[in-house]
Amino acid sequence: MTVASGTPRVDWTDSFSSRAKNLQVSETRALFAVASRPEVVSLAGGMPNLKDLPLHQIARSFESLFAGDGATAMQYGGGQGFEPLREQITDIMSLEGINASAANVTITAGSQHALDLVTQLFIDPGDPILVEAPSYVGALSVFHSYQCEVHHVLMDDEGLIPESLDEAATALEKAGRPAKFLYTVPNFHNPGGMTLSEARRPEIVEICARHHLLILEDNPYGLLGFDGHLYPAMQPLNPDGIIYLGSFSKMFAPGFRIGWALAPDQITEKLVVANETAILSPSMAAELSISTYLRDFDWYGQVDKFRVMYRGRARATMEALTKYLPECTWTHPVGGFYTWVHFPPGINTNEMLPRAVENLVAYVSGTAFYADGRGADYLRIAYCYPPEEEIREGIRRLAVTYEQEKDLLARVSPASKTA
Amino acid sequence: MTVASGTPRVDWTDSFSSRAKNLQVSETRALFAVASRPEVVSLAGGMPNLKDLPLHQIARSFESLFAGDGATAMQYGGGQGFEPLREQITDIMSLEGINASAANVTITAGSQHALDLVTQLFIDPGDPILVEAPSYVGALSVFHSYQCEVHHVLMDDEGLIPESLDEAATALEKAGRPAKFLYTVPNFHNPGGMTLSEARRPEIVEICARHHLLILEDNPYGLLGFDGHLYPAMQPLNPDGIIYLGSFSKMFAPGFRIGWALAPDQITEKLVVANETAILSPSMAAELSISTYLRDFDWYGQVDKFRVMYRGRARATMEALTKYLPECTWTHPVGGFYTWVHFPPGINTNEMLPRAVENLVAYVSGTAFYADGRGADYLRIAYCYPPEEEIREGIRRLAVTYEQEKDLLARVSPASKTA
């Protein structure tokens, strides 16, 4: 036997699947390694703030869970997820007007995996889908990985524009290639910061039903409205035509990687098999931990605390943008983690990013949120993680960067010279 | 707006992807719901026995983890997995002769998900692969889901037969459709119960290297040899040509859903992106829990206890088979969870299964472990979960069922009547 560690490297490139060839290592990864240094104010990541959780009480609660029920918590579970937790999930969804059975809930390794599995169920390579413009970067990664043909639908301050949706769906139908689904984040949009108005919700549902267009209603932030208002889910308007995706990451904590999909029977049946195939079962340790938290703690009171915290951070963001970046425009979120900032002509937020990081502030450029290269005149500010004083300082540094960027543009652009 | 819950059901069948159409709900699921009743001795499932874990000490250890480091444990993590746990994993693998860097380890939501992601990286629909005959049912589910063309390679008591592997690889090459990889469980095979001999390991690696055939070396049971012997991994024989899959499910507990893949640089780079796309990151709560367990407990001493327990159960299984089913043959495992039982001609273990469940014993029929319908003359006995006295009683009930089955065959078969 002669194959030893000294043999030449083997190249597997030609063996990769077309999906693997499609997977791109993020160009900004190295940059974000720099941006994670403590002196950099990161307005980039969407990490929730967990410092306000009652960690000692939670720890004691987990101790009694594992001491009393550890052999269950550390065993394999069912592929659809722990039934008592699925019941608790239906209670949570009822806050938004959803009347669901636990039999239609599938628990997944985070709602990201629910999105991955649902995409697997509907997409053959090249299939067209409709998504908002802009859209959640993690969803675009999934759609890209499954080789979807992504068509963006315009939004305004009230969210997805019904007429644009109808036009896009009609155009694809006329081309003989109807879209497989619409992916939408109706509440406190990532990255847009806008919320779909209540008036538009039935319109969106009606348009999709008319086009036999499945809706993926992704709602990780729904409970985090700053004034406590709960927007009604679209799911009850057409339970047979909507898959609702939910997450514990923002209302509790992301570290357990537990999310869920509520889907019609026919889709749930496939989804459970897809889930079992991919991961056998969700983590029972995680499911029982979350189930225990929901049972033993005032989880909704905790959500109220989160809301107040994020409201303060959003207000600090709005004030700092008004003070430091008056030449920009931005959305005015009423909940969630994000605002979407538009820069005057000439600014490319991708080109500006390394210089922003030099100035010790990080963000995500708008192009990350489009499948078609648009968005270089936008950036996303996530105000969820840094405290208010850091947000103000971060936006001040962003304004310094913007002024430098304008100077740079003025020096290199003949048009500016002659103006 | 008129789409109400009273509208007729919507049918999404035509919208499903070809992968989804391929996903089959297991026909035996309803049967196994019956088989999970407490009066049934289940020799079916591969659930490890966790009752011997020091649950109270583990619970206290998790309490200090969450009280002290909860904001980290409950936050998002990195897509490749928690670096200190990746270091600990390299220490574990070194027991089998693997000299790896944590940079080549990707932590996944169980080793099942590692297998799913690796398959995603290499398989386009219709691509041929080589697997053992028989093979792990969960791997076959993944391969079926990705629409692999599965080619079985024969095994004997020493595991995979090198000549059969060489022939199968050559035949596919000659047909212009080389196999994408070989999937193998070298140690304490599931379902076969046999172990690849040490003499054959370099042969297998050499054959695969010669055919430019990637090896997936799946090793969930490797530390569970009854006499404590550690078989050398194949990975060190060709680190650039082997992906090694590892799991905490059998050496600790499956409830955290944490496994890993050790892969060459080029494949790791893609695997991390695929992992991030599918689940964003593994569960930090699970990663830190396992990392804490490995650090604070005599985990290898615990593995020794598991070994002794499973050895006793395997011995009880062998004795009961000898006593009750002398007309059958079976494999003689030196570790792990399973033995593979062969029945005399005429017996179909699928047809026998409902009658076995009536007699209060359950198993998995051999056909589950083949992609091509073979295996109805085999069944798998998993002796890992029931205590020894239950195993004996279960095999006695299996023998009763077998005798009834022979009577039934004699009554319906003219050949038997005239004999």
Structure in words:
Chains A, B: It comes from Mobiluncus porci. Chains A, B: Residues 51-398 form the Aminotransferase class I/classII large domain. Chains A, B: Homodimer. The structure is a homodimer of 419-residue chains. The first copy, chain A, has 419 residues and is of the alpha/beta class. Chain A has 2 domains: 21-53 and 301-410, Aspartate Aminotransferase, domain 1 (Alpha-Beta Complex); 55-62 and 69-296, Aspartate Aminotransferase, domain 2, CATH 3.40.640.10. Chain A has 14 helices and 14 strands. Chain A has an 8-stranded mixed beta sheet, with helices on both faces. A 4-stranded antiparallel beta sheet of chain A has the order 10-11-14-13. In chain A, helix 3 (55-73) packs across helix 10, helix 5 (111-122) packs across helix 9 and helix 11 runs parallel beside helix 13. The longest helix of chain A has 26 residues, at 299-324. Chains A and B meet through helix 1, helix 3, helix 5, helix 6 and helix 8 of A and helix 1, helix 3, helix 5, helix 6 and helix 8 of B.
